[in-house]
């Protein structure tokens, strides 16, 4: 995941607070680190740290930053340890002055590119793709000091997913990879252009959504305004990540013209059609299952209840319970409403089943609360193959759907039935035919073969 | 508000962690302070502090506490400054050893009692009712060292709302005032008795709900088991606070046999009947309006959407925005889903309108997002009179309903219509006739006349 | 120990910052807690917490306090656990309004007084003598509302050491017990009177030292100026604590007309005469031995070196070393200068030997650094009996001098000789005959017999 | 300044705790940041942060590091902002694996080297010399993969001061620049070799001092033991920084065979001879003047007193006083002992006069305390020229000695006389003829001309 946000103010007003608010609105895309770099056309100042946006930035840190061009990043760690070195923006000093880069996505061939650069004497202080891109960019600039040409040349070497925001001199550059894996959109008000991973952040800083950056498009904003360029390898047809609609993005965002909220509601409706079951009530596993369940209730005409109550005060300072207290810990986060479940046939809707442990505890709690039957529906198809474009492997590898049938899972977790959304259902729910479904059907939009035999390679 | 939780373990096991988890489940009843006192039959250890339960207690503080009798408290400041002195449990040393008291509610005549005690030479370090009760209790014990008699005598002097948990020697005493203003219930497992402001906390520590403490009942647990006593002034008919159902309690709690969740759903249905309006969608103002809206959707057969998205990461470390950034701050917390609102007639449901400022901003955002009509329904009747039994005056005093008609409010906040729940509707939704409705109809269940002319009296 | 500081400003200026600086200058008298209470003639505000003065108070806390009468306290825990309840000032509300009390010393009969009060129905939230005094004071005020009479009557019940500062109405009262155990002095500038445990704090707030409060004197400052009263039981001859000169007070303080610096230098000279030894250099064990050593060098005409270097950065956040790292930890705090010690006969001077463990490690380090001989002199006589007037028992009980001869100690710690200052030498060094020497010669200036057989009594 | 510490353990034991303690002992050399890198022959782990060693490292951070080769650094910011990027060790990934570098000193031509590297496409994330060295090293390794040759080649490009510790593979390399500007010494115990900026840190980890690294020496430790190499450009005669003896180093260190303590004592003696004055007492301005004053007292036969008492509790959390409180703030840190100063002719000894403000306040306080005469002696010669080898320019630029005579300074600060140590006196006190005295006499041991006209260049 990760989220990026950028601004170029033609009025030369200080945009640091707006970048901060933009990142706050994108906090759901990454909670492990945050950073902001701000340029004034000459110098670039920056600050970054581990944690949530308001943990990293107090007024003090914001006051030290000043400029009319800004980029920010919230970090979700896919590759590399969660250290401050791996936080973004990645800011470097070079022969061409300071450059700041933020990146959302995963470069499939970053390891190859890194090896080649290392063989030429380059060194790396982080494990981020941004650093690889920075090194490539400076090398291209040495060959050709036109930034447009240089950035274009860099993109021709990259294989994978990248939505990028780059500050260089008095220029802000936004790029979406040729497949358009990750979202990136443009906002505008009287004085400035805005770029954001999701449109919800534009809403929040009260800026009009202008349009999505097209797959394979490079947008360049400088004092003369906005110009757009098409990357030579831009694809005819995009391969946008379906997971943005299902899970990652905020429901108030619209990605490539499709409302995330509507997709999730559609999924709920399709689930009701694809795997119907006679039940008394439908209830989400909060928070992910909420909108799916609203669609389900509409289609199946079964009353909607929130029969599992989430404790809103559970935070990261929670004292880790002893082994014996584990069940208690799940219940502390999620308590079944006995009154609603007693003697009822219940449909629960969640977004995934990871190892099955938590799902199993939820089933057990629901049954103990008196539910006669508990059925589980999953608002995403089965994930069967790794993602090389930015989703955490550790998580998908453990997905129970890789190795078990619905019936086996149901038995294992103690549900009366389990069903996943079909791939066709997902495509129908989104209403687009230009999606990346590689983790569902193993059809990768780019070459993902690995040239290394290292074993601990990400592939 | 405030929440209290207590345990007496007959197996003499250390109950401090369970009190901690119980308080965690009651966190919604008070976020300003927390404390735990633990007794072993002789000594009482305690720790308290300002902030949320996990902010006050780390493993270190919990490890310093050990015993088989425990009481805990989460603080919501009604009277007095938010200082550590005003946090509970209130633990004192006396001629009769250590005593720990936790209190939920407000004693109407505490000021008179305090003055009388002061005239007899007593001094006070806090502004809590608990300290008044502690002083009265020790005086009664001097007259009659039977704790049951002494506590009974104390209660005969108290006018107002009090759910109390008291540790004395090897005894845990639980009392609910004669009117039963505030909830208090009993749980039980093989080895221990539990007391909690709400049944949800019993669920969470995985203990069976036994029954509610009756209005005017005193329950005494010691090594011989549980005994119950009826206070001499116990009322025939209770006057339970209706706000517990409407707003305070967690929806997974059942109070005096009535499910909080069901009450809120009923309110939504009744709102749909009492003030119908032709709309395309109904949406809650999160989080308070969610269950009301689910009832509304069922009754009015209008689709349910969550058209205002709450940012789950907004916490207390949020940087205060400048005056110009205030609108932005509301939007950061609550963003309208344009896709859902555009060209729609919308019904929003909230639990109250305080000053009208936030409601006004929400109406404005909804209209800007494209809503054709925005109607507002409030899931509680109009509050017209102060509460002397434990609800913050500062808040009710500012309630806009005191002085304006529905139409005036609608105009002020920019809504197309506004309607509150009727008192009859509320009573129907709860299904009880033994409620305190004083803040709605000025019929106070106890004498609330004030003997002082001080001006800064709470009355 | 503990330190107290107070101000009454006739110009009605806000004195909170000055109390803060005064406490900062008294920080050496107590590092476990700090508090300030400020009155405006009507209300008293206060704040207190655990830790050093600058840890407890930031600008935020100071800004919440405002008034022209103030008292402050730094806490060193003699009796009771180190909890916030035991921090001072102790502020109470009573029939006579708010009262704030700070206390330095130990009341010998506080336990008896507390029991008597408890029998009358009083309760206690702390284990401080200040709370006992507060309760007694309010009872006396009920009998006789003249504060002078009431305070006088209270003092007649107290046995032990007490330097007190009390805010009552628009009055600041300073009292030094009849024996004058603990120091207390008065400062004055154009607009205000100041009271401080030590004169150094007057220097630091740039106020002229006026005089010491006399033993058995009560000084009362109100809008009419300063008045003085003699307690009925004021002693003819004081019994001032000799430890203030030897160890507690800052060297820049003058107590009862005698310079602390000069006393310590005298001690060094007398040590040189009482237990001479042929050595090449004299060196302090820092920091306590520094001024003793300067006196020694002058008398013995032996060069002065600081041959043990203290690491100024060792603070309380130090990571506790494992058992194997203990020697390393001592060396981290105190490193011998090999260059100075090699092949030398060395005289080290310290202020005490507690368990002998640290002294033993120092001797070992000095020998390992090449010292031919290492002699140790102690700048205080042997302590053989507990103090009931305010010095920590835990420490004195473990003092090695209780049970071993100089020769035995020398052998145990690996020194070539050990000698303590004689009692006569101490008296000569101070130059006063009105000292409390009870811990040295068991002659207690007040009755210290205990009426309780409890075992865990402080006596 | 800055301090570095390194270990290679042949027993393969985990050395991270020892590096931590070593850094603790070098804390006086830098308080702005700290870091440790630990290698196991393959991987290098590291952690660094802003602040004091115990602020940066808790047990948690130390437990995450494990290996038998370690280097650590305490940071004092000479060049560049105080950010985490500028903390050391500087750890990079390269074609040759991970490399960790720590550096004490200042590379005069780092700007030129950086520009050359940037022109070849290298980028920089920090402003440290360590990063320049890292980039040069990797380029050399590409040409010649023998690490000894590569490091040697790098040093031939460096002009300036550098004591370096480098981890590469299973090798620890220690280098002292050809002039030996900055100290570096070797320790040894049965299982390991140690390297430290100062010998005091070897004492503290209880390791025998072996010898100093010679100017222009490269020491390489690997599994086969220790080997030494002479850099081609090693100078015949060193130019060691005289300030290490006068101010920077701890007195318990011995640098290049000369005791820091003895040098400071000699300086005091020479001051007494060079600028004698009839006084009653001599007193240091603590802490810097203490050892100078001890030498002075011995030579001048004037009694030694510490007439200015330092508050040991003043830390970094100190609340900044308002303008009116500035005098108070100086007195809070440093209080004159009136008893000692009254009617005395006093000699004060300090290590420098920066802007004269603080000195002026000290003079004023001493006079107000009653001193008849106050003379000031400075234990260092006048600094007239900037240092390019690692001392903060900002400080020296403001040194009052640049522009005023002794008499002018005395008048300005209100002293009865002022005198600095002579350069000859300094050389005599140290007893070495191979010193860098450039800041005193403008004779720079290396070319310090600047090739840039940038203006904001460090030269």
TrEMBL record, chains A, B, C, D:
Its EC number is 2.4.2.14. Pfam families: GATase_7 (PF13537). Binds 1 Mg(2+) ion per subunit. Signal peptide: none annotated. Residues 2-224 form the Glutamine amidotransferase type-2 domain. Mg(2+) binds at residues 288, 350-351. Keywords: 4Fe-4S, Glutamine amidotransferase, Glycosyltransferase, Iron, Iron-sulfur, Magnesium, Metal-binding, Purine biosynthesis, Transferase. In the C-terminal section; belongs to the purine/pyrimidine phosphoribosyltransferase family. HAMAP family: PurF (MF_01931). This is Amidophosphoribosyltransferase. It comes from Methanococcus maripaludis.
């Amino acid at each position: 995941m990760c989220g990026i946000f950028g601004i170029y103010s033609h009025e030369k007003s200080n945009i640091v607070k707006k970048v901060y608010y933009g990142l706050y609105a994108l906090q759901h895309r990454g909670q492990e680190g945050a950073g902001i770099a701000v340029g004034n056309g000459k110098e670039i100042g920056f600050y970054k740290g581990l944690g949530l946006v308001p943990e990293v930035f107090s007024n003090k840190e914001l006051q030290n930053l000043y400029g009319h061009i800004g980029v920010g990043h919230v970090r979700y760690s896919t590759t590399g340890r969660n250290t401050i070195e791996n936080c973004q923006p990645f800011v470097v000093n070079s022969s061409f002055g300071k450059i700041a880069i933020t990146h959302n996505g995963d470069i499939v061939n970053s390891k190859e590119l890194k090896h080649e650069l290392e063989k030429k004497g380059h060194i790396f202080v982080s494990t981020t793709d941004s650093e690889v891109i920075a090194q490539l960019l400076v090398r291209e600039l040495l060959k050709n000091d036109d930034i447009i040409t240089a950035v274009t040349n860099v993109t021709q070497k990259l294989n994978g997913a990248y939505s990028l925001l780059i500050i260089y001199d008095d220029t802000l550059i936004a790029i979406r990879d040729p497949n358009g894996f990750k979202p990136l959109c443009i906002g505008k008000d009287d004085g400035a252009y805005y770029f954001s991973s999701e449109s919800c952040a534009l809403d929040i800083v009260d800026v009009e959504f202008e349009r999505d950056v097209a797959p394979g498009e490079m947008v360049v904003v400088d004092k003369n305004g906005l110009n757009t360029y098409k990357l030579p390898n831009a694809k005819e047809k995009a391969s946008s990540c379906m997971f943005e609609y299902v899970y990652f993005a905020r429901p108030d965002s619209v990605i490539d013209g499709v409302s995330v909220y509507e997709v999730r509601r559609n999924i709920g409706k399709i689930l009701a059609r694809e795997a119907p079951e006679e039940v008394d009530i439908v209830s989400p596993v909060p928070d992910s299952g909420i909108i799916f369940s609203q669609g389900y209730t509409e289609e199946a005409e079964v009353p909607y209840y929130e029969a599992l109550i989430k404790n809103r005060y559970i935070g990261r300072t929670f004292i880790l319970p002893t082994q014996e207290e584990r069940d208690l810990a799940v219940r502390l986060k999620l308590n079944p409403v006995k009154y609603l479940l007693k003697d009822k046939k219940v449909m629960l809707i969640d977004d995934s089943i990871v190892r099955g442990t938590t799902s199993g505890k939820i089933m057990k709690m629901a049954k103990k609360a008196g539910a006669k039957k508990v059925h589980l529906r999953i608002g995403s198809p089965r994930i069967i193959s790794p993602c090389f474009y930015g989703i955490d492997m550790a998580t998908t590898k453990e997905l129970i759907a890789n190795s078990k049938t619905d019936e086996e899972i149901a038995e294992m977790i103690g549900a009366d039935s389990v069903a996943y959304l079909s791939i066709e259902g997902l495509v129908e729910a989104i209403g687009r035919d230009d999606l990346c479904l590689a983790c569902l059907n193993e059809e990768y939009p780019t070459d993902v073969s690995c040239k290394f035999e290292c074993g601990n390679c990400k592939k």
